[in-house]
Write a structure and sequence with these properties.
- By secondary structure, the protein is mainly beta.
- The strands form seven sheets. The protein has a 16-stranded antiparallel β-sheet.
- β36 and β37 form a beta hairpin.
- The longest helix is centred in the middle third of the chain and has 17 residues.
- The radius of gyration is 34 Å and the shape is globular.
Amino acid sequence: MSSTRVNVPIRGAALLGIWMTLWSLPGWNGRVAAQEASSPASSTEETEAPEESASSPSEDLDLEPDHNMFFFGAFYNSVFTPRFATQLFFEDTPLIHTPLLGVEFTYRRHGFDLMFRGHWHFASFESPGRQIGVDPLETEWADASLNSIMVSASFLWGHQFNRYVGIQYGFGVGVGLAFGELSLSRAFASDADESVAGFQQCTGVSTDPSVCSTNVPTSGPVFTLWPRVTVPHLALRFRPTESMLIRVEGGADIFSGFFAGVSLSLGFGAAVIPEDRYGVDHLDFIGVEEMDERALRACLATRERETFGLSTSAEPECGTPPFDSGSLTIPFWRWPWADWPVLDQNIFSRDLRRVERWYRARGYYEAQVQASRTTPRSASVTDATSTASGEDLCERDGVGEGCRVDITVHVDEGRPTMVRSLELTGLESESQDLREEIRDQWELAVGERFDEALYEQSKRNMVRVLHDRAYGCATAVGEVRIDTEARTADVHIDLTAGPESVLGEITVVGNEDLSESVIRSVADLESGMPFTEERLSEAQHFVYSLGTFSTVDVLGVARRNEEGQCTGIVDVEIRVTPGRRFRYGLGGGVLSGQYFNNIDATDVRQWDIHLLAFVEHRNFLYGLRRLRLDVRPKIVFQPEEGTGPFPTPRFGVDVRLQFRQPAFIERRTNLLISGRYEFGPDPIDRYFRHFVDGGITIQRNFFDGRLNASLGVHANVFEVADTFEDEANAPSSFETLFLQAQVQLDLRDDSRNPTSGLYAAANIQAAGLLSWNYIRLVPEIRLYAPLWRFVLAGRFRLGMLFIEANDDRLDSVSRELGPNPYRLRLGGATSHRGYAAGSLGDRDVTCEGSDPSCVPYEQDSGGLRRWEAGLELRFRLTDSIRLVGFLDVGDVNREASFRFDYPHLALGFGFRYDTIIGPLRLDFGRAVAGSQFPGETAADIPDWQVFITVGEAF
């Protein structure tokens, strides 16, 4: 029998943030499996620890008066300094509004919240002002760009109406370091439209020379402490789920004005030891030297409380090599909510025997557990923490809680058994190439330690090779002869290929009322096809990719005659478990540094905080069709020079609708129909616009999903919503209609964190009939090679835009460079990290006159030719942390040829921290002087660029 199985993966969006749903996911009840090995002549014996009791309905820990709760999250506030507040000290000042964003940690007990915050406060304004009582002729003009990094603590009491809603009130104190630039000059009274609070700045040309003739601007840096006292601090507290907290808040800051905002946090209850049990604080081993202690712990049911730390290797799984990696682990701390594993004497006694059996499975037949010790000693004789009369046997961890216990196990490893010989028989009549491929499947080697897991893996590898050669009845029978005195092992495996096999009966099981015909069609298995394990694996992949099933198993069972002989026919059973068909959710997140235009992703200088509401049906109109609607309202931040990372937020909304029809035309071709409406600030040029996209695409995967090809047609409507004083140079609205073809070949070992392999892609657009006739071509190739603990990664990408015709009504930039969403740009977190997003290449200038070839903007707007290359050396420091050094080069220009003599070389370094949604990435890049372009000057070298995002650069 052969099988291929996939379970539901944990998915995450490519966002710098956390996706949170408003419903509780089903609990996962599992069991601890422990591997027990008796002798190498038999397969490894496994012993399971008793199942944990089913969890009782969750209690609302937040309402328990003596229970501790912890919340981690982020918040956003808008701070308003009204005129009446500033006029307590100054006259003729306007209202000042500034944003404040940060992270928070809250400790909650007895309904009282102690909340600690760290936040960034940015203020940029130009306004008049003068002290009270000063002559209006002495009014000054302040031009400020100030930042402050603050820490604060808030003390909030409140009342909980029910488990979902409550109110809070209290106060807060804090202190920050304010820094930035402040410029002061004279101001004169004016009733012009551009005046502020009735004044204008003296700039050298004035209608009131009597005031401005003495104007002497002064400027300089600001560096001072800034206090924060919030009285009152009021909030509405919402808990839509057990672990999510939303707080809508407001109040007054004595030193800054009024504030209002929202916070979003995840909550955790502090774990406690059950009242009459021992909680395992530490489980230590003495004498474990040759083997990896973590690999041994993975096979035991008794575990110590989890510790957060760093390790130089991945977390081991029970029975999975390597067992002697000798990893270095540095423990740091334990989270308060980390569960307490409890001591069970029966299970612990079996664990002591498991230690010896685990060592024998690793080839250490002399290994023994010499002794074990518990502190307190009472835990070695009973699981109870008190006597029948109620007398405590140990020191309790708290009122109504159990006791901590430390366990020490002494092990004598002994000496290992080494492999003396490896023998393979049974394939004498097969080809030399097949026998060579089979021999390459040995996981053991002469002169190395014998290990049962590697012995069993060798047999599985050999059978898999035969299965992929259509030998569906292939078997592997092994024998291991152990010389206990010499401590040697002679290993023999006999293989039987059997007849070449074909597929027999194909059945589908577990699909309920879901379309069996679609499942069969997508699996693409027919009776009479040659049997291979790869064919079953590919069928499993495509059935699972329908997105309707939580698990998919594709099982091949060799058919035998009455004498038990293989007939050469393999029957296939496709077992599926349907998931939820109708899904909906509400959540939120942060998207940083990228804009998705429905074709590809572009690095941009903006980030947003958004909500996401979606509804999806995965059996729409039956036939396993999928229909999904997403609505994403967002607050957009577009940093510019002088604004810091938190400029005045701007509102936007993104609505997407997608329909997917599987098995369209032929078995593995999908039909995709999509629609999108987006309103908000343009991520490049920043004016507000409406963007509508509709598309019809056919898409096909090949070779277990490694090769993907698609062809479709898209129509766009781009409508500028802002008005411009200079209509001649204003951006144009437009319409596009284009064919889109894309091919991707992915031979990487891991798409999110590759260590070896190749990735190649090509994207082609051909537009016509409407605002442009153009062809856009973007080919790319990436290579990855492992080098010990390093990975060398490289990328090369080109971009070409051929504009054959355009509409005369377009602005000059659009006529020259094409539609704004699809222009070729460079610079940013996923392209060239020496330059800010989209800023590399020819710079725009403000045009004078009516030259139609002039590009009339100060912002960067791309080009017609782009080339880029990158090289990274990635070093895995621990299981979850990697260090990276990188080199980026490339150029964008508006000519009809590439400028390879403009390298724009940049060097940098970065850090990666692996999460469930991909690596969290922090990169620092700097352009190298003397290697940018011919004739460069010091002013052409940008400062250090810093990028924070999720996912590798390539």
